[in-house]
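User: Fold this; tokens only.

Assistant: Input:
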Amino acid sequence: MAQCDICKRQPLKANWKSHSQVKTIRRQKLNLQSKKIDGKKISICTSCLKNLAKSNNRDKAKKNKETKK
């Protein structure tokens, strides 16, 4: 099953709704990307990937601020 290795999210169930209002169950899959992080290849969803990038940028900014003082 497709699952994010970090947050353990899985596909959701949703409905397709036709013009006649007939509902058909479908799956909403995650946007998974395979990335190498710390030497391991993992499947990571794009929301976790975005959060990792944000935290890395925040850490870099903090280090730059400390070195300038």
